[in-house]
Amino acid sequence: MNSNACTNKVVLEKYLSLPQGPRVQATYIWIDGTGQGIRSKTKSLESKPSKVEDLPIWNYDGSSCYQAEGSNSDTYLHPVKIYPCPFRLGDNVLVLCEAFKYNKEPTLTNKRKACKEVMVKAKEFLPWFGIEQEYTLLDQDGHPFGWPKNGFPGPQGPYYCGVGASRVYGRDVVEAHYRCCLYTGIRISGTNAEVMPAQWEFQVGPTEGIDMGDDLWVARYLLERVAEDFGVVVSFDPKPMKGDWNGAGAHCNYSTKAMRVNGGMEHIEKAIDKLSKNHIRHIKEYDPNEGKDNERRLTGAHETSSIHDFSSGVANRGCSIRIPREVSEQGYGYLEDRRPSSNCDPYSVTMVIVKTTCLEN
Question: What is the rounded CA–CA span in Å between residue 58 and residue 29?
Answer without folding.
Answer: 11
